[in-house]
Design a protein that fits this description.
Blueprint (H helix, E strand, L loop, with lengths): L5 H9 L2 H14 L4 H13 L4 H12 L6 H16 L5 H14 L4 H17 L2
């Protein structure tokens, strides 16, 4: 989280979520290597504006930035998976993202969860 964004926090506190998203996206344009504004915009699209497609796009953009930390890569990957399994209802894409998470982050807690989720999905398809 970058210092100096109290004005955006104030927009959120007032309930001006679209204004906050617009402000975070402006920061993302000014700071193209900073994942945080994209993640914050994605969270607002998901939690406050009920726009899972825009949330997905922001999380994907953040995840695909060069230099993203492994922790934020895992976090944004999980957000993408949750969107596909939840409001976007696209199990096929969720499975591809789960496999990608397993491949990129083996031996992590997130990879263990991805493996379990894939097993559940496969078990549901075999019934």
């Amino acid at each position: 989280y970058a210092d100096g964004h109290s004005n955006i926090d104030a927009l959120e506190a007032r309930g001006d979520y679209q204004g906050a998203v617009n402000a975070w996206e402006a920061v993302a344009v000014r700071q193209p290597r900073n994942t945080w504004p994209l993640i914050r915009a994605g969270e607002l699209y998901l939690q406050r504006l009920n726009d899972p497609r825009m949330a997905l796009e922001r999380f994907r953009n953040a995840r695909d930035l060069a230099g993203i930390t492994p922790e934020l890569h895992r976090y944004t990957s999980q957000k993408i998976i949750d969107l596909y399994l939840g409001p976007l209802n696209d199990e096929r894409r969720a499975m591809a993202e789960l496999r990608r998470l397993l491949e990129i982050h083996p031996g992590t807690r997130e990879a263990d969860g991805a493996r379990e989720t894939l097993a559940l999905i496969n078990a549901n398809h075999s019934r």
